[in-house]
From TrEMBL:
This is Penicillin-binding protein, 1A family. Keywords: Carboxypeptidase, Cell membrane, Cell shape, Cell wall biogenesis/degradation, Glycosyltransferase, Hydrolase, Membrane, Multifunctional enzyme, Peptidoglycan synthesis, Protease, Transferase. The keyword Hydrolase applies. It is found in: Cell membrane. One of its GO terms (cellular component) is plasma membrane. The lineage of its organism: Bacteria, Bacillati, Bacillota, Bacilli, Bacillales. Signal peptide: none annotated. It comes from Tenuibacillus multivorans.
């Protein structure tokens, strides 16, 4: 009988050892567990300051163990697995104790999962309590212990545990509950955070402050009992009244939400992945946003847009020398309407289209002194129909007016006659030269902006003028770095192309400064008269209106800003304060943007000459008009020769 029992015992031992050997060999052959953990994607401005954190279902920042407070590690080990550094994934003594107490209580009153087992469960498995899951957990835990050292396992564990309220990992939890990084956590803060994962719905201080504090105190006691802290540290930490940060829902909305969303959509295109994948893969997306410019734009819109209206806005600022988009606002409020009116909407441009026409006119021989009759006129079209455009408020000079004055007061009759001279098909070509890719009709009315174009495209085309005729390609992303620190996308600036002849481009720019110069007032006021007095820098620009659209686009040598306002449903803009909003937003914002910058003028190329000229007659300054002349630029050889005599 004894011999049989001994044989059975030996067979059991051999079987156990053989099974263990097989499991060990299997685990080695399988190699380290392969997994990919969701990690937050972070968006930065041009100064590499964080402007947004994007995540999928899980909010998580992966941080290395060296970037986690030692109090955190000690607290979790004391609370969850005080033998962590001594076992091989399974704490036999703890398992035996748990079995004993659970049998006595006839219920599961004590757990025995180690940190390694919890880590395996967090990454690979569900939390279902089945034998199949337990076996899988054990096998994965063994592979983790074979192929990772203890610090790697602890780092993974601290970055994957759930802290409630959508926060995964110690860094996300630290920022959510205490608005600080994980390496700055104090002893009592670390103890509180280590209390939450046992049951986030029960121990979150936002759900039950009392439960959280009681478990925090228990963990502090465990830290003292396991010699992680001294008695004095234990007593002091217990007495501290912890204050929890406000929840995310109570915080101020992010700056630049339209910008961020557009940049992230662009990033997903560049990488060829979905937005969901981008948001949870731990990328660092470095954008071109100037945080101060964006803040000033949003502040200005909030202050200057009428509050008692459903009218919307689209505004964007570009650095014309580089193409960087430094600020963008696609509406009054992102939370109420995420539709981006800068990039997604196309609206009729009104008179902001005229610079394309007048560039073509300069190429075809016009000068700032070229005169055309400004009077009520009807035009017979090729199909026999009569086209009768009108000036604003039906105001006409009823005499010849110069190009200088026609541009400044936005004379529609002058524009249609110019388009008739240039040819509508050549106006289309001119617009394409500026970078406008929309389908444009070759008709006389195109001169008055009957085409629909996006705010971004209009800002790009005006930036070509601001860049002295060189091409500009707006962009929002400088580089994208993956979670391993590899640069997976880097913006490569293309060599600029000369799109506009530099002399013509400068003459046109100087003509566009006229909208702010009251010396060009006459039969109509210059279109920028309502904002001219508040401008302290040199700007060129053009406003534009249709029954349902209001535009202001202008630039300095440093920045181009385009602003559109109107109703999403294309209803007519009737109130005066609504019609003035685009100009007022543009002027206030541009002055704020340029406040700390030195006044800079547009550079005149060597091929032009500047003369004092009477803008009414287009003739050189003389005794009869010296009180109304203005510095005007001409391409050399085209300047006027006559002196004004009246």
């Amino acid at each position: 009988m004894i011999r049989k029992l001994l044989r059975l015992f030996l067979l059991t031992v051999v079987f156990g050892l053989s099974t263990g050997a097989v499991i060990l060999v299997y685990s080695v052959i399988q190699g380290p567990p392969k997994y990919e953990i969701a990690d937050n994607t972070i968006v930065y401005d041009q100064n590499e300051d964080v402007i947004s954190v994007e995540h999928g279902i899980q909010n998580r920042f992966w941080v290395e163990l060296d970037d986690i407070s030692p109090y955190v590690m000690d607290a979790f080990i004391a609370a969850e697995d005080d033998n962590f550094y001594n076992h091989f994934g399974f704490d036999i003594k703890r398992i035996a104790s748990a079995v004993y107490h659970n049998i006595l209580a006839m219920d599961k009153v004590q757990g025995a999962s180690t940190i390694t087992q919890q880590y395996a469960r967090n990454i690979f498995l569900t939390h279902q309590k089945t034998w199949e899951r337990k076996i899988q957990e054990a096998l994965i835990s063994l592979r983790l212990e074979i192929f990772q050292d203890k610090d790697e396992i602890l780092e993974g564990y601290l970055n994957t545990i759930y802290f409630g309220h959508g926060q995964y990992g110690i860094q996300a939890a630290s920022q959510f509950y205490f608005e600080k990084d994980a390496d700055d956590l104090t002893l009592e803060e670390a103890a509180l955070l280590s209390a939450i994962p046992k049951g986030p719905s029960v121990y979150s201080p936002l759900n039950s402050y009392e439960n959280a504090m009681n478990r925090k105190d228990w963990i502090l006691r465990r830290m003292y009992e396991t010699d992680k802290i001294t008695a004095s540290s234990y007593q002091q930490a217990k007495r501290i009244d912890l204050r929890i940060a406000v929840t995310a829902s109570e915080k101020e909305p992010e700056i630049g939400q339209y910008f961020t969303e557009t940049a992230l959509n662009r990033a997903s295109e560049l990488l060829g992945i979905s937005r969901q994948e981008l948001d949870s893969k731990g990328y660092d997306v470095y954008t071109t946003m100037d945080h101060q410019a964006q803040e000033k734009l949003e502040q200005t819109i909030q202050e200057e847009m009428p509050a008692d209206t459903e009218m919307q806005i689209g505004a964007v600022t570009i650095d014309p020398t580089s193409g960087r988009v430094v600020a963008m606002q696609g509406g009054k409020n992102y939370e109420q309407s995420p539709y981006n009116r800068v990039t997604q909407a196309k609206r009729m441009t009104g008179s902001t289209f005229k610079p394309f026409l007048y560039y073509a006119a300069l190429v075809y021989g016009f000068t700032p002194s070229t005169q055309l009759e400004s009077r009520e006129t009807s035009f017979t079209l090729e199909n026999g129909k009569v086209y009768s455009p009108a000036n604003y408020s039906d105001s006409y000079a009823d005499r010849p007016v110069t190009l200088s004055q026609a541009v400044a007061v936005s004379d529609n009759i002058y524009a249609i006659k110019t388009n008739q001279f240039v040819g509508p098909e050549n106006l289309v070509d001119a617009a394409k030269t500026f970078g406008i890719e929309a389908e444009l009709p070759s008709v006389l009315s195109l001169a008055l902006g009957t085409a629909s174009i996006s705010v971004m495209d209009m800002a790009e085309s005006y930036s070509v003028l601001a860049n002295e005729g060189w091409s500009v390609k707006p962009y929002l992303i400088e580089k994208i770095v993956d979670r391993d620190g590899n640069i997976v996308y880097q913006h490569q600036a293309k060599t600029p192309e000369r799109l506009l002849e530099e002399n013509h481009a400068f003459v046109l720019t100087h003509l566009l400064t006229g909208m702010f110069d009251k010396r060009l007032n006459g039969y109509m006021y210059v279109t920028g008269s309502s904002i001219a007095d508040q401008l302290t820098h040199e700007y060129a620009g053009k406003s534009g209106t249709t029954p349902s659209d209001s535009w202001m686009i202008g630039y300095s040598p440093q920045y181009t800003t385009a602003v559109w306002t109107g109703f999403d449903d294309n209803r007519e803009i009737k109130r005066v304060q609504d019609s003035r909003a685009a100009k007022q937003v543009w002027a206030t914002y541009m002055e704020r943007l340029h406040k700390e910058m030195p006044v800079q003028t547009f550079n005149a190329p060597t091929g032009v000459v500047g003369l004092q000229v009477d803008p009414i007659t287009g003739k050189l300054e003389g005794p009869a008009c010296e009180d109304r002349t203005r510095l005007t630029y001409y391409i050399k050889g085209t300047e006027p020769k006559e002196v004004c005599t009246q």
